[in-house]
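yo

u said u wanted the structure for the complex thing, so here. seqs first:
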Amino acid sequence: MDGMDEIIKEFLIESTENLDKLDRDFVALEKNPKDKELLSSIFRVVHTIKGTCGFLGFQKLESVAHAGENILGKLRDGQLAMNESRTNALLALVDALRKMLVEIEKTGKDEKGNYDRLISTLTLLSEVNDSVKTTVVPALEEASETANRTGESAGVSETAIRVDVSLLDRLMNLVGELVLARNQILQFSTAQEGAGLGSAPQRLSWITSELQEGIMKTRMQPIGNVWGKFPRVVRDLEAACGKKIRLEMEGKETELDKTVIEAIKDPLTHIVRNSVDHGIESPEKRREAGKNEEGLLSLKAYHEGGQVHIEITDDGGGISPEKIRDKALSKGLISPEVARQMSERDLLNLIFLPGFSTAEKVTHISGRGVGMDVVKFNIESINGVIDIQSKPGLGTTLKIKIPLTLAIIPALMVTSKNNRYAIPQINLLELVRLEGVKVQTEIQLVHGAPIYQLRGHLLPLIFLNQELEVSNSLDTVHNSLNIVVLKAGDHQFGLVVDEVNDTQEIVVKPLHQILRHVDAFAGATILGDGSVALILNVMGLVKKAHLISANLEQAKIEKAPVIEIDTRDKQMLLLVKAGYTDHMAVPMKQLERIEKLDGSLVEKAGDHDVIQYRGKIMPLIHIGSVLPERRKKPRQIVEPSVYENKALIYAAVYTKNGRSIGFVVDRVYDVVEVIVEIKDVIRREGVLGTTVIQGNVTEILDVDWILKLAPPGFFDSAVA
Amino acid sequence: MSQEQKFCTFIVDQYFFGIEISRVQEVIRYQEMTDVPLAHPVIRGLINLRGQIVTTLDLRRRLGFPPLKAGRFPMNVVIRAEDGPLSLLVDEISDVMDVSEDWFENPPENLNGETRAMIHHVCKLKDRLLLILDVEQLLNLEVAKT
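structre next:
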């Protein structure tokens, strides 16, 4: 029950602090006995102690606090007036509470000591008016002895101190600076060997790292701090619902930033309550279903990809998508047309809609209007993601992904007009690079707004330079375009930037209020070299560009026509590597031959790379560069100069009307003859489909699509 | 007995300005700045002041003077403001001066409206005039816009 210990420890620290405050408050109250605010604040402190004791099971302490609360309540409401005997009695109460706290700390129990007289005095004072001075004295004696003893032990409440988070933030800033200074010194000492610094720079380096780690740690707390109260919550609910539940927790030590911990406390509690109340069935039902009578609720936390994953799984009745659909329909949350098109997963996610509650009956435990929509909102407000999976009859899993910290976020660095900007990775979907002729052909103007077709979706484009008013990008001719595909709320759009740099963990710092009206920025950060970079506010950019009305679902265009691939006959396929596609198959029947060409002979003609081939000029298309990128993770992008420094390139030559074009690939593996079976619909432009060849997931190149990239009119006329 | 006040003084264009020393946090040399697009034109950029990000305001622009000659770099006078420090870009830093309140006079009538609002007092020194700036007015960029 170490989780319980944690709560008790917190309770002790908090209560001791509050009692110290009470001492001061009572003295102030004596001077100003009618101060309502003071009285209310004293009342609240005692009330909190009473409430928490009740929860933790310290009955004696609770009863003492309760007696005090009674009299304080009446004082606060003006039914009683403060007088000396009441002040004395209340001070005695504070001393008694303190003594009991010390005892709880030592023994974990509050059983020692007899406070009946204090209680009766307090009760008497709360009833009778101003006539019971004599009874107070013995009660005081009893208590005053306690006052002398409290100072003895230095317990938990003295080994831990509370520190303002802003102070930690400042320390973190200073350490950041120290790291920069350290780096400079290290640089200097390596450059000037024998500068007489000896091992001092190394030591400085080591200490700085330790310090940095330590400061970071001060803000981190194990998730067990939140989970600690769940055994009790589950136990109480078990009793209330008549269920049997085993709670398993894994990854208690997983650490999170304090602010994040605070933010997930309530949502997690809500989910746990829900699972117990609605998820896990009653023992009878479980027996009927052939399950163990005892239900299992498991909490799991772990770090992955710079995020914390939390999974809450129950082996209960699960949620049936049909039930959710019916419910959503009856509540008018979705229309029947929409409902018909929704996948099982979409249906399950409906429970996050406001106003949704599947519980047939509202119990006192859950289903009181604070629904999963609030949970989702809370998780999303800290840049988290929540997802639900459920199998009817088998159970439900809620998966939450949250950032480790809000102060440090992963971001993609981009460049616009020589200035670097950070884009929070949470907004990032993927990166697309358009080169050469595609810049002109792939981007269309719709009502003057540039639109790019990304796998059948119309993606509105925003030019960062233009939005920031540093230059008018639309006027300039681009040889290539870097599109950062972003989402903000329900909107997706492409942000065109000059350059995509790397990804970095950045420390978010707010802007001065003199700049707050600039919606385009969410803050600023200091980069490794000490310079400052602004953090883009993606939502602000959307608003600024007036994209907000664009509805992406409506903008969805018709899917590409179904491509016919002969799947019955064997086909000859050339297996190659092209750019980031490690395994790609090119149908051979459209190819004439495979050539090895000298890369240094590649020349530029307009937008195209060409090479002299059999006395003619043959355009080259580098397949790896022209295929749209599908990866979400930013990668270094293939530069247009793929041919430079390459002695040998492989080109699959395609000939039509006496004219040839070369598809350049990075490597040729093999030629195979197989029956193609399209496995998957993961499809992107330029690719017919995906299949498995020789154990590798292989994309089949859409030769006709690639041919469209040839210079306009290239194949139209036969050569004389 | 008249009160003496301390002022941090500096030069912008050819004029001699002062700010109450209690408002000044520190004075630092020129720092590389990061542009802030879309911001008020008086805002020149952001600097990294020992891990704190500080917004800089160009006093030349604020007071309606022409830009500093190419090749010359302004200094930062970091002042305390509501919501954290701000930096004022000035041409040159001068001394900290004790000035008696007796020497204060109202700004001359021939100063134009906006600049006049930013000048609290004028102080006649032996050899020149010290213009004492009203920091609140300086930072009031909303007014400056109109």
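The mean pLDDT of chain B is 86. Chain B has one domain: 4-145.
cya
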